[in-house]
Structure formats: C-alpha cells, structure tokens
Amino acid sequence: MTPDSHRADLGKDPARVSGMFDEVAPAYDRTNTVLSLGNDRLWRVATTRAVAPRAGQRILDLAAGTGASSVALARSGAEIVAADFSPGMIAEGERRYGSGAVGGGIPNLRFVEANATDLPFEDDEFDTVTMSFGLRNVDEPKKALRELLRVTKPGGRIVVCEFSHPPSKAFAGLYRFYNGRILPAVAKAVSSNAEAYEYLNESINDWPDQRTLSGWMREAGWTRVAHRDLSFGIVALHRAVKPA
C-alpha cells in the first residue's frame, strides 16, 4: 500500500473509510460485480423491490456510492437523494448521472455528501430511507439507525441490505473459504486498491448476524422489523417501519 493510500480497519475512522472509498470509486461497481460473481445486481433488484419506490415519494439512498442503487430507484419517478460520505464516490456519481452527464443526467436524482451519524436533513423528510452495504462501515451504526429514523416520516419505511452470516454451517464454511482465499486474489487482479478489499473481509466477519441487527433496529425505535436472507444468507434484507 502506498504512503498516500487509505486502508480502513475495524476502528472505522470516518476519514480513513471515506478516503479508502475515494480511491476505489472509478472501478468500484465493476469490482463489486466481479467479486460477488454477479450477485450484486440481484441484491440491487431485491432491494429496489423492497423499497417499492413510487412517483411522488421522496427517498433517501444512504451510502449510495456512485449511484447505481439510486438510479434503479429513480426509474420509478420518485425523487431520490443519493447520499454518501465519500467525496470521490459522489463525484463519480455526478459524472455518470448528474446534470453534467451525457444526456443531462437524471433530473429526479440528486447527490449529497453526508455522514450517516449526522445527516444534513430535516426531521420527517423522507417517505423511505434505504442503505445498501454501508451500515457496517459506519463507526456508530446504532446512531446511524436513529438518524435514519429521525429523517423518516411517521409511517415511513427503512430497507437495509447488508452482508450477514449464512445460517448453514456447510455453506458458511465455503463462504469463508471464498472470502479468505479466492476473493483477495481476484481483488488484486481487478481492483485499483486491492488492500482496501482486505477490509471487506474483516468488516463482514466482524459484523453481527441477522437477529442482532434486527435487535439494533428495534432499539433505535423502528417497528415491524423483519428480514429475509438473500444468496443463502450471504446478504440479508432488513425492513422496518417508523411508528405513526
């Protein structure tokens, strides 16, 4: 790793994590597709269906990265705010989909730099909030869940798509083998910063299981908390509602 590069660790210092994502932004989506064996697209479809965006709604897509998930939501006609704490990711999203993009970009999609634990939005501002593969990168995830509750309208919903723990011991063993042996070699071949993807394994292994995250959501004040596994539990899709 070069002296100027960022390699996040489980301390999840916001500046280091943000800097790491700045470095990988240009090739981020392509690398994710390769490392997930194409499953990232299936997870995005499942998340979009769970959010069920509609024209007239205002939706926050937090940890939006370069905006791939936000674009899928924006196709509904809903007003989408794509927020991320990485300036590099926001810049890449603006380049691809913003007003300066080829064709004028997507008019109902706006990019905002934002920290999940101190969101720059008013109370009760969004009909739905969603976060894909970003909550585990936050240094205070419970605080982030409370912030997401604050900016959601009463009766509004949250959808969190995040890596989790396969319930099958046999499959979990195969998954650990892939993450420990195969993924680092592939990341070295396709990523602009392979060392950054070492953090991916660490953060996934350290992240709690489905039941624990559901408990955190209830503690934050969300109700009707539920989840379903995707890809045998590699990923879990969590859903809940803000009390009316």
From TrEMBL:
PANTHER family referenced in this protein's UniProt entry, alphabetically: 2-METHOXY-6-POLYPRENYL-1,4-BENZOQUINOL METHYLASE, MITOCHONDRIAL, METHYLTRANSFERASE
InterPro entries: SAM-dependent_MTases_sf (IPR029063), UbiE/COQ5_MeTrFase (IPR004033), UbiE/COQ5_MeTrFase_CS (IPR023576)
Organism: Microbacterium lemovicicum
Enzyme class per UniProt: transferase
Pfam family, one: Ubie_methyltran
Protein name: Demethylmenaquinone methyltransferase
Keyword Transferase attached: yes
Catalytic activity, EC: 2.1.1.163
Recorded GO MF terms: demethylmenaquinone methyltransferase activity
Keyword DNA damage attributed: no
Gene name of this polypeptide: menG
Pathway in which this enzyme or protein is active: Quinol/quinone metabolism; menaquinone biosynthesis; menaquinol from 1,4-dihydroxy-2-naphthoate: step 2/2
